[in-house]
Amino acid sequence: MRASLLLVVAACGSVSSKDRTDAAAMPDAPGATVDGYRSGSRLKLSWWTYDDGTRTYAGLHDTMLGTDCEPGQVAGATVCMPDAMQGYYFADAACTQPVGDWYICNNQTPGYIYTSAVTGGACPSSIAHVYQRGAQLQATTVYYLNGTACQQTTLSTMDAVYALGAEVAVGSLAPMAMAEGSGTSGFSVTYATSPDGAQLPMSLHDNSDGYDCDPESAAEGATTGTCIPEVTTAYAGYFASSTCTTALAEYPSACAAPMNAIVPAQCPGTFAQYYALGAPQAISTYYTESGTTCVAETAPAGTAWYALGTQLSVGSLARAPDTAAGHRMQLIHYSAGATSFRDARVFDTGEGTEVEVYQNSDGSHVALPASYNGFVQSNYFYGDAACTSQIDVVEIQHGAASCAEPPLPMYVVKYGTTPNGCNDALEVHTVGPAITVYLEIGANCVAQTPGSYEYHALGAAVAISSFESPTISVDP
To answer: Which tens digits make up the pLDDT trace of 128-156?
Structure first.
């Protein structure tokens, strides 16, 4: 069975990396199927369209409710879940009156608010209720559940708070179902389908191990990928021994045990490793790696610890861009045998880089370089030993000392601040040379020694206009 459905609300600037891609050319006939994508009579596919005709999946649109939606679960039912903000906070000190919270720099304010089955805990929780968005409240003081305690907090002026409107009956949401792949080996595609005829490729299904998984690549231009299991996972970045050799996984003790454990990737361009969950461990001390030192830590209350079982054989996939004649924007495929699945990213042959769709501060969209390993840090590091002049720095993950020198990205995307205070003015830059940077720690200005990260100057700006700007449309 499929372990979970993910509801993704895109943050300011970037379209979710879970977006999937369709074929370069779509047929004119309504209801036709191309690469597993098909609109229904109620649920319509929307597309990003580039000047060369290349089209990529942009989402589903529920024509009956007049809102965009994505496959998800509400009160145990699989539906096309409307775009919604979370009702995480409460208006009252007893934590009985949920309110929606929306960061005003995000994309268009959703018309719905959802609440979870469990609030205030660390355990995964499904959506229990969906409400229409009510009136905006003039409130900055709200409350939240910390376990069973209702605690007060103050939101920033960039948060908008909304009351709950009328509850939306689950039966009024577009029903969907998951059609998982079949076979005894290799991969097949898992689709989300609806009674009105819509169909959407969601993930791959590993027929050998019996779970759904998401194809992922680890580096720009990667020719291979892996399929990440869609199961609950414990983090296994800790150790049971003082030599930091016996790995441990941890998970909140109040939650049901997860299905497996993940050992994080040690080097950029490599993948995490997955293990079956082993036997519970009763420990009072665990260990972490700090450089070449193994450091003892006191095990906190409320944490369950597990040994690692057998390593899972996560499947390998081939990955390559298309070579469609006359197209600047080439779709990227994962493949295994006869099974093919399209990557979220597109290869821009004009700039020689993989791209994804971002929203700029003026509401326009542009396909800018996808970030694998290289992020701009602003207003954080200094360029002088007195810590008087802050500079923009490109932070590159190096990983463990034994890792090979990571390749520098061709471009990085910087978020600039617009007059309304939002960090959504997009800039593209090259990456400059390695530099020494300084960080203010207490009263001291401390040089940052390259280790797990290395630091580079922000290079020359590249005109946004040199990248492609797709338009969005919805199937008729």
So the answer is: 999 999 999 998 899 999 878 999 999 98
Residue where a domain stops, chosen among 136, 157, 172 = 172
Euclidean distance between CA atoms 363 and 365, whole angstroms? 7
Give me the DSSP letters along 54-99. -EEEEEEEETTTTEEEEEEEETTEEEEEEPEEE--EESSTTS-SEE
Token pair belonging to 237: 């970045």
- Asked if 175 contacts 121 with a C-beta cutoff of 8 angstroms, the reply is no
Place of tokens 């290349």: 54
- Both tokens of 273, joined, read 């490793």
SS3 category, 110: coil
Determine the residue type at 440: E
Q: Domain end: 127, 157, 172, which one?
A: 172
127, 77 in Cβ contact below 8 A?
no
- Residue 315 neighbours by CB under 8 Å, 6+ apart: 187, 206, 208, 213, 226, 227, 336
> What is the pTM for the complete model shown?
0.87
Q: How far apart are CA 460 and CA 391, in angstroms?
A: 14
Q: What is the mean pLDDT of the chain?
A: 89
Same domain, residue pair 249 and 143: no
Same domain, 76 and 159: yes
Q: What's the domain range around 371? A: 351-466
